[in-house]
Amino acid sequence: MSFKLILSTAISLLFITGCSKSEQTSDTTVVLPKQATASAALGSITQCKTYTGLPQNWLKQPTAGMVLIPTGHFNFGSEKAYPDELNFGKKQREVKGFWIDQTEVTVAQFASFVKATGYITDAEKQKQAAVFSPDLHHPQQWWQLKSGYTWKTPNGDKGAVVNPNEPVRYVTKNDAEHYAVWLGRDLPTELEWEYAAKANSKTDTPLHQAPTDEHQHPQANYWQGEFPFQNLNQDHFKDVAPVGCFAPNNFKLFDTIGNVWEWTSSPYQGAHDQHMGNYSDLRQQQITSTQYVIKGGSFLCAQNYCSRYRSSSRYPQDFDLAATHVGFRTILRSD
Fold first, then answer.
1. Domain that holds residue 249
2. How many Cα atoms sit within 13 Å of 31 on the Cβ side?
3. Measured between alpha carbons, how far is 139 from 67 in angstroms, rounded to an integer?
4. How many CA atoms lie within 13 A of 229 on its CB side?
């Protein structure tokens, strides 16, 4: 039975059998393991294409599909990239240990959340999302607000059926937070996300240095060619890829570079530690932020546009706007 048929059947069952709300009690004690759980057998295109999208012991173990990140220090931001990545404050930051999803949250994982809770995403309620849809007649307009694009139908309601091993997309920060709370988890802060992504690397990657190996073969899912009309597919993917198709970082995390941008819980407030002082805080203490930091770049990042395929990469994203290239992963703090 194909993955597409499996997911299509699972989605159909949501409407046939109905859904019940998940129940969590505040007096339930969750005991976290002291050591890493079983890692997913991923890291190559062959492996990722056969992955079901559900980690071992899913919903049976509180850290299923997660990796334990130790307490440590790292250099926050970058001095070789975009201005908003510059860190004018303390260069080295300490981060307490935590668990984090080894892969981006998959369609299969999100489907299990929807089945258990009956959750309806913002894109489904708004009946619109930001869809990457380049037009030769309007070469500078790559995005359109369209209906029919949701986590269940990321290729459109008349497009190809989604694969369960793909990262879930067309989810807002609100959607991601609801999923995280269902599992007793959180979204990472920008600091936590970048620490996990850099994985003790001391290299400050320059702006236009693409993630390739010594033979110039892509080591992540990003755009090769002239964006937005020439896609050379040298990474073997025209758009989004299943999770875990490329080698992990030193913390055994997959796809922290490229594939999809990932939500964080950090409001976007311009450059790190603005050297003139962050006087915007005077207003933001009273006004709810509407943009939050997303990290890691996506399959739409190219050398001639974006170039945000680095661990320090960051971008502002409207908290209530679902988009083609944005997903997430969750964390579980160990304290």
1. 1-11+37-335
2. 0
3. 42
4. 7
How does residue 296 score in pLDDT terms, banded at 50, 70 and 90?
A: very high
61 to 184, 218, 227, 284: CA distances (angstroms) = 12, 34, 42, 39
CATH number at residue 159: 3.90.1580.10
Domain contains 228: yes
CA atoms within 13 A on the CB side of 294: 29
- Which amino acid is located at 200 in the chain? N
Classify residue 149: in a domain, yes or no: yes
DSSP string over 157-181: TTSPPPPTTSBP-S--HHHHHHHHH
Looking at residue 4, its pLDDT comes to 42
Predicted pLDDT of residue 89 = 83
Instruction: Report the Cα–Cα distance between both ends of the chain, in Å, rounded.
Output: 42
**How many residues are recorded in the chain?**
335
* Any domain includes 81: yes
Total domain count for the chain?
Answer: 1
Question: What confidence tens digit (pLDDT) does each residue in 311-335 have?
Answer: 999 999 999 999 999 999 999 998 6
Per residue in 209-226, pLDDT (tens digit) is: 888 888 888 889 998 988
> 263, 246 in Cβ contact below 8 A?
no
Rounded to two decimals, the pTM is 0.86
